[in-house]
Amino acid sequence: MASTSGFIPLENYPRYSEDDMRSRAKALYEQLKRRRTVRDFSADTVPRDVIEACIQTAGTAPSGANQQPWHFAVVSDPEIKRKIREAAEAEEREFYEHRASDEWLQALSHLGTDADKPFLEIAPYLIVVFALVNRTDDSGQRTKHYYPYESTGLATGMLINALHNVGLATLTHTPNPMKFLNDVLGRPSNERAFLILVTGYPAEDVKVPDISRRSLEEIATFY
């Protein structure tokens, strides 16, 4: 029999009626299907404690061996946002002009994206998500992290959900490469930039691409 040392009882975990389960599942689906990526943000300020609470929510995500291999660098300083924009646009110009294949550019064409990223300065917050490949404690002992990118992806998904839940829009931005983010933010080399999550209120009268989501039958198989 496995040892239960270090374990605690799971308390106050709800068990809903089947009708309540259906209602809650449908309500969450209806809420999240309204989530859309936007590229035009309002400059209106967002309370910092709201962002903090959303990041705390992200920090509850499951992770390999419960190592929680993530760090969220939250940027609101205009000068730092400007530096991030300049470096990101330099990488984006390389992408659009030299790195991207014609096939890739064609796949992006319906979204209307280009190398210009004004949202990196306009939106009130840039949350730069880092994955930690290892961690060093105060004594200098280094611990390898397992599944850091998968775990960070799960936490990022929960963060997007949390931000949408409070009425904030998001944009996942992934300039490639992203090593410049370590330099601009002074983050250590064991942290690898995962993405920039741009967040704030959507701009007034913002428009989004006319897209649809795949049906349940297309995305799931029940055995």
Overview in brief:
39% of the residues lie in helices and 16% in strands. The chain has 223 residues and is an alpha+beta fold. The longest helix is centred in the middle third of the chain and has 22 residues.
Beta-strand percentage? Answer: 15-25%
* Strand tally: 6
Biggest β-sheet description: 4 strands, antiparallel
Please identify, by name, the CATH architecture: 3-Layer(aba) Sandwich
Strand arrangement in the largest pleated sheet: 1-2-6-5
**SSE string:** HHEHHHEEEHEHEH
CATH topology: NADH Oxidase
Number of domains: 1
Distance between the termini: 32 Å
**Which class do the helix and strand fractions yield?**
alpha+beta
Which class in CATH terms? Answer: Alpha Beta
From the alpha carbons, calculate the radius of gyration and give it in angstroms. 20 Å
Which outline best applies?
A: globular
